[in-house]
Design brief:
Length: about 450
Amino acid sequence: MSLPVVAIVGRPNVGKSSLLNLLARRRVSIVDPTPGVTRDRVSAVCDLDDRYFELIDTGGYGIEDQDNLTEHVEQQIRFAIDGAALILFVVDIRAEITPLDLEVARLLRGVKTPVQLVANKADTEAIEHLAGHFIALGFGEPFCVSALHARHRRELMELILERVGDLAPDKAPDPVMKLCLVGRRNVGKSTFINALAGEERVIVSEVPGTTRDSIDVRVNLDGREFLAIDTAGLMKKGKHKTDVEFYGYSRALASIRRSDVALFLIDATVPISDVDKKLAGYIVEEFKPCVLVINKWDLAKGRADAEAYGEYLSKTMPHLAYAPIAFTTAVAGRNIRSTIELAQSLFNQARQRVTTGQLNRVIEEAVAAQQPMAGKHGGQPKLYYATQISVAPPTIVLFVNNTALIKEQYRRFVEKRIREALPFEEVPIRLIWRARESREGASRGAPARGAGPDNA
C-alpha cells in the first residue's frame, strides 16, 4: 500500500504551512503572513517511531487570490480531501469562529473522510481554554498545538497515527491504474485517447490547444479497467494569453500528480524543446513512473532509427534515462496496446516490495564497490542500514551517521545500484536519508560492512 495521506485544511493564515513544517521537522512550505501564499498542494513524509504517513498542506480555503486563482486553489484542496485518510481541520485558537471557518466546516461535513479539529497558535497553556468555542463547528473537541513553539508535536503525531491506523483495511483493494497523457501542444494526446477508447471521446484538431481541460476517460482493456486522463497541451508559461490557457496548464500538472503512470508524448518530427525538458523535470520531481511515447513515428522514417532516437533522448533528458520508450502512430492505432502493457508493467514495478535483507545486501555491495568520500573536516560517512517503508513510489529510508556527509554524487550512485539490483529498474525511487539517533545504536547493530570505521 501507499503511505496513508493526511490533509491539512483551513481558512487562510491559521498556520497550516507552519504546522506541516513542524510535523515534518523541516521547512517544506513557505510561511508568510500574506494570505494565499500556498496555492498548490505541498507534501512531506512524516514519521514517528518508525511509522510513516504523507502530510499534505493546502491553500487557504476561501482566499480571494490576487491572480484570480481562487478556483484553482479550491480544486487542489478538494483533490487533497478526496485522497486523504484523515483531514486536519486547522483553526486559529486566538480568533473567534469566522465565516470562512464555517464554510470549511460545511465543506468537510459533506465528505466521508474522518476529520480531526486542530486549534493552532496555542502558544501557552493559559490560552488553551479558548479552544472550547470551536466545538460549535461540529467536529468534537479541538486538539491544541503551537506550530510556532513546537508545543504538543509528539502528542499530535501520536493522535494522527492512531486515527490513521484504525482506518487501515486488512487488505488493500485492487488498484485501478490512472494514466495521464501529457506533452506539448499538438503531439497527438487526444488522438491517442480516442484510439485507446475506440471512439472519439475528445476533440481532435490540427489547431494547437484544442483540449483546454483535463478529461477523464475510463477504459476497459481485456477485462482490466483503468483511467486515462487527457490534458491540455503545454507551452511556455509566458505564452499563456488567456486564463483558460493558464488553467489548462495548471490542471495538466495536477493530473500528473494524481496519476499512477505518465505517458509523456513527444512529437517525433520536431526537436526536444525547453517545454519538454521542464515537463520531464516535473515528472521526476513527482516520482511518477513514465513511458516516453514517441508519437508520429511514421512521419520520422528515414530521419533516424529507434536506437539512435533513444540515444538522443538520453542526451537531451538524462534525468529520465531509466524510463522505457514506446514508438507509436496514434492516428493509425499503431502500438497503442503495447504502450498500455508497458505502463501496466511500470504500475506493477512501482508497487513492488523487497525485504530488508535484500535491500541491505545491495547497500553492502554498493559500499564495498565505492566508499563514500570523507568530509572536508575529516568526518567519515557511515551507512548503517536501509528499509523500504512504502510503495508507489518505492520509498526507502537509509540510516547514516550524518546526512550532511553524504554527497549528492554518492546518493545518485546508491540509487543507481538499488535500481540495477532490485525490481525498480524502470521506475523512480524515493530515497530518504536519515541520521540515526545515538540511542538506537545498540539496538540497530553495526554499520553496513565496508561503510567505514565504527568509532561511535
